[in-house]
Amino acid sequence: MATTYTPVRRRPSRLRTVIGLGALAEVVVYVLVASWIGLGWTLLATVATSALGALLLARQGRAALGELRLRAQEHRAPGRALGDAGLVAVGGLLMVLPGFVGDLLGLLCLLPFTRALPRALFARVLLRNLPDRLRGPVHVRSVRTETVTGPAEPYRAGPATRVIEGEVAP
């Protein structure tokens, strides 16, 4: 008995699609800029933005790492400083690579006053894709509507006799 092989079709991932469309956008913008100002000026602008990216990466990276070091010395959670260090690294990489769309996105990640936008977008995407159990603590605010009476010895195991009414705050 002969069996036929049917190949399994894989769905393209969103990340591959985004990277492919981003590369296509880079090429289109690069060709448009080169046709507008000329190839020589376009190459010069590419080198200049890469140099600017390296300079900004060094300056902002040093500041972000200094903040992380300070938080570690004070035994505080890294919090936003860790996210800022990651955004600075991504922004520096985007600025150093050739292309004008990546330079614009990298600049948004590197400058402190524009970093809130990519941080919010990344947090939204991350929280949407995380399972519920990994999303962090749920803050609950309770409102007691009537007096609660319980067993004389509450430390003993038994059936649940207490009801707490409340609402979950996001």
Automatic annotation (TrEMBL):
Q: Known PANTHER family for this protein?
A: UPF0716 PROTEIN FXSA
- Report what the protein is called: FxsA family protein
Report the InterPro entries cross-referenced here. Answer: FxsA
Alphabetically sorted, this entry's keywords are: Membrane, Transmembrane, Transmembrane helix
Organism of origin:
Modestobacter muralis
Q: Where are the transmembrane segments?
A: 15-33
Q: Which Pfam families match?
A: FxsA
A GO cellular component annotation here is: membrane
